[in-house]
Design goal:
Family: Belongs to the sigma-70 factor family. ECF subfamily.
Domain RNA polymerase sigma-70 region: 23-88
Oligomer: single chain
Pfam families: Sigma70_r2, Sigma70_r4_2
InterPro entries: RNA_pol_sigma-70-like, RNA_pol_sigma-70_dom, RNA_pol_sigma70_r2, RNA_pol_sigma70_r4_t2, RNA_pol_sigma_r2, RNA_pol_sigma_r3/r4-like, WH-like_DNA-bd_sf
Distance between the termini: 61 Å
Number of strands: 2
Radius of gyration: 18 Å
Helix content: over 70%
Structural class: mainly alpha
Organism: Kribbella caucasensis
Order of helices and strands: EEHHHHHHHH
């Protein structure tokens, strides 16, 4: 007999392959976007998300299937931080190379305003960037952000407020 838990608004059977496959189909793109905004590299972001889903599959069945999506978000953020740490260490041993610009196709799709926001967002400290992405891109409440990042709700609120102020100032300077 298959029992069903709720993840988002989708009933998910408790068997590992089907449950993880449904989560993957529903949330992979959003999780990749989250990772891209943190690591600024689509390929690394896809690897991060794939590793998070693989780990979720290994850990299935979960005690509380409702915690699968918050687990995935936290895993993606943690793995994204690891990617950034590895990059930082690699830069210590090799001279920094010019970042290749995006393809002509992606450059044509992105408007200048969006690129300015992305540049300003990338210049923020990692924790601030994570809070802002979770708050304004994923529309998570401060309590959910706090749970995902392992910080207090008041820290999530304060970081979001300071981050918006810094981001606003940086965008004013660019214009």
């Amino acid at each position: 007999m298959v029992s069903y838990g709720e993840i988002g608004a989708i009933p998910v059977p408790d068997d590992g392959p089907a449950a993880v496959a449904r989560l993957y189909r529903r949330h992979w793109l959003g999780l990749i976007r989250l990772a891209v905004l943190i690591v600024d590299d689509r390929q690394s972001a896809e690897d991060v998300v794939q590793e998070a889903f693989t780990e979720l599959y290994r850990r299935w069945p979960l005690n509380d299937p409702d915690k699968a999506l918050p687990y995935l978000r936290a895993a993606v953020l943690n793995r994204s931080r690891s990617v950034l740490r590895r990059r930082r260490v690699a830069r210590l041993y090799t001279p920094p190379a010019d970042r290749p610009s995006g393809s002509a196709e992606s450059a044509a799709e992105l408007h200048e305003d969006r690129r300015e926001v992305q540049r300003a967002l990338q210049s923020l400290p990692t924790r601030t960037r994570e809070v802002l992405v979770l708050r304004y891109y994923f529309d998570l409440a401060h309590a959910e952000i706090a749970q995902t990042l392992g910080i207090s709700e008041s820290s999530a609120r304060a970081t979001a407020s300071r981050g918006i102020a810094i981001l606003t100032q940086k965008l004013k300077e660019l214009r």
